[in-house]
Design brief:
Strand content of chain B: under 5%
Keywords (chain B): Heme, Iron, Membrane, Metal-binding, Transmembrane, Transmembrane helix
CATH topology of chain B: 3 helical TM bundles of succinate and fumarate reductases
CATH architecture of chain B: Up-down Bundle
Number of strands of chain A: 0
Structural class of chain B: mainly alpha
Number of helices of chain A: 5
Shape of chain A: elongated
Largest sheet of chain B: none
Largest sheet of chain A: none
CATH class of chain B: Mainly Alpha
Number of domains of chain A: 1
CATH architecture of chain A: Up-down Bundle
Oligomer: heterodimer
Radius of gyration of chain A: 21 Å
Helix content of chain B: over 70%
InterPro entries (chain B): SQR/QFR_C/D, SuccDH_FuR_B_TM-su
Pfam families (chain B): Sdh_cyt
CATH superfamily of chain A: Fumarate reductase/succinate dehydrogenase, transmembrane subunit
Distance between the termini of chain A: 50 Å
Radius of gyration of chain B: 17 Å
Number of strands of chain B: 0
Organism (chain B): Caldiarchaeum subterraneum
Order of helices and strands of chain B: HHHHH
Subcellular location (chain B): Membrane
Number of domains of chain B: 1
Chain lengths: 156, 120
């Protein structure tokens, strides 16, 4: 069990390591959160046709009633706040994932060299760092937009 | 499937999700106000209107399959790095494959029935 605990500690506590560790932790946490949301979203949108018990064409009025009940259930500030956080996670995961895609192809990486003080990672070039911070900025923008859509505070 | 092919698919599905996810977010947030997009069926971007359009319904099916693979493969990678062992590896892969297929089947059912419902 201690192996698992140590692995979790390394993943979930990114302090003292620099932005690449933060990007790693955020990418994993956002990925898990988005996958869980995806499952919930497929279940939730299943109510468009009347819920889990419906496997043949249901009456139109029945499906409409179930969907409106689902909407009433989801009209809750807590769910809206959750969606706003998800907007942040989606944009971070997408743009940072694109950075990882470039890394995977070997693009935008620095040249390998002798490890010398202060041991800066050659892979974290200006382009890589810029993409990380762009992902954070876009994620914050998405968060602000989502808060405006769901809570109508800013009226952008 | 071998690990390198799974990871190649992980990156390809990731790029695909940018396109299909972009279409999905655009239909819900940009092309019509969010609260109008949540209506059942009384405007061009209401829920059933999206399923009525073959291209949009098809893009939702594409998004469903891509996100299911990308998400559950991502979970598999994380669980795989957390602990190693032959039985554990097989159990994780099998379990996530079953859950992933179940989600795709359920979502496909929604899309197919909603498309028929929208034609009524």
């Amino acid at each position: 069990m201690s192996v698992v605990v140590n692995a979790l500690k390394t993943w979930l506590i990114p302090i003292r390591y620099g932005v690449e560790r933060w990007s790693y932790t955020l990418q994993r946490v956002s990925g898990v959160a988005l996958t869980l949301y995806f499952v919930a979203h497929v279940v939730e949108t299943g109510n468009v046709v009347g819920g889990a018990g419906v496997w043949t064409l249901p009456p139109y009025e029945y499906a409409e009633r179930v969907w409106n009940e689902t909407k009433a259930f989801l009209a809750n500030p807590l769910f809206d706040a959750g969606l706003a956080v998800l907007a942040f996670l989606i944009f971070f995961h997408t743009v940072n994932g694109f950075r990882l895609f470039l890394t995977h192809l070997g693009l935008t990486l620095g040249k390998p060299g002798r490890p010398e003080y202060p041991y800066r990672a050659a892979s974290m070039t200006v382009a890589q760092k810029a993409l990380f911070w762009i992902s954070v900025v876009l994620a914050v923008a998405a968060l602000v937009y989502a808060v405006d859509v769901f809570f109508k505070v800013l009226q952008i | 499937m071998r690990e390198k092919n799974l990871m190649l698919l992980h990156y390809i599905t990731g790029l695909g999700i940018i396109i299909f996810g972009g279409i999905h977010l655009a239909t819900v947030f940009l092309l019509s106000p969010y609260h109008a997009s949540m209506e059942f069926d009384n405007n061009p971007f209401a829920v059933l209107s999206v399923y009525r359009n073959v291209l949009l319904a098809g893009s939702l099916e594409g998004l469903l399959v891509l996100v299911a693979f990308h998400g559950f493969n991502g979970l598999r990678v994380i669980l795989q790095e957390l602990y190693q062992g032959k039985t554990y590896t097989r159990a994780v892969s099998l379990l996530l494959t079953i859950v992933g297929i179940a989600v795709v089947v359920y979502g496909t059912r929604t899309i197919l029935i909603a498309h028929q419902l929208a034609a009524l």
